[in-house]
């Protein structure tokens, strides 16, 4: 077990995360289901009220079951499964842990020099993070260059669906959308969910 995984498992055990859930997560990370079946990738696109585009990325050992479950959730939310990826752009998202001595101006300069197209410094759970967006094809190169030039600790690097700025939708009553997204996230096959909701 690599050190980062060992640390994550230890942290999960400390907060009382069930052993079965930890084992399932490790199996998924290795591309197999808890029963050893190979996992397949599945992407579902949908529109749900009020005209919110949704992209759901899954890893599943049964595409038909997952598709049926998620289609039902979309239908019951008043939506429909339909292409929506034209409302998004594929981008790389790289997250670094920001240290107290990090100079924000230097970080932004280094990020832009490394090839980032957007830089944001956020705070999550009391920890400051440097979040970079890149062209999807440049994610690995930018992450490597930034790690080398800044000395920051890399937390994650992934390809995401980023909603286009001019396609964002204001949601006046977020409760229904929140309930739908919660239901989607409760499906064990769902890995990521992207929306264009403000």
TrEMBL record:
SUPFAM superfamilies in the cross-refs: YebC-like
One Gene Ontology term, aspect cellular component: mitochondrion
InterPro entries: Integrase-like_N, TACO1_YebC-like_2nd/3rd_dom, Transcrip_reg_TACO1-like, Transcrip_reg_TACO1-like_dom3, YebC-like
Database matches in Pfam families: Transcrip_reg (PF01709)
Residue span, TACO1/YebC-like second and third domain: 40-197
PANTHER family the UniProt entry points to: TRANSLATIONAL ACTIVATOR OF CYTOCHROME C OXIDASE 1 (PTHR12532:SF0)
Family: Belongs to the TACO1 family.
Protein name: TACO1/YebC-like second and third domain-containing protein
Species this chain originates from: Lepraria neglecta
């Amino acid at each position: 077990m690599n050190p980062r995984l060992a640390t994550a498992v230890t942290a999960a055990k400390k907060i009382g995360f069930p052993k079965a859930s930890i084992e399932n997560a490790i199996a998924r990370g290795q591309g197999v289901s808890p029963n050893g079946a190979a996992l397949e990738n599945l992407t579902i696109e949908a529109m749900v009220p009020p005209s919110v585009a949704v992209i759901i990325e899954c890893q599943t050992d049964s595409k038909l079951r997952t598709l049926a479950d998620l289609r039902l959730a979309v239908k019951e939310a008043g939506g429909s499964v339909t292409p929506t990826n034209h409302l998004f752009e594929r981008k790389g998202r790289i997250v670094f842990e920001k240290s107290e001595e990090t100079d924000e101006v230097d970080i932004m300069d280094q990020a832009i020099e490394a090839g980032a197209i957007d830089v944001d410094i956020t705070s999550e759970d009391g920890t400051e993070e440097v979040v970079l967006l890149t062209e999807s094809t440049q994610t690995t190169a930018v992450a490597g260059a930034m790690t080398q030039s800044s000395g920051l600790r890399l937390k994650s690097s992934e390809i995401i669906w980023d909603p286009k700025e001019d396609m964002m939708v204001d949601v006046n009553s977020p409760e229904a959308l929140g309930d739908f997204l919660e239901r989607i996230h409760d499906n064990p096959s769902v890995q990521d969910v992207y929306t264009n909701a403000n």
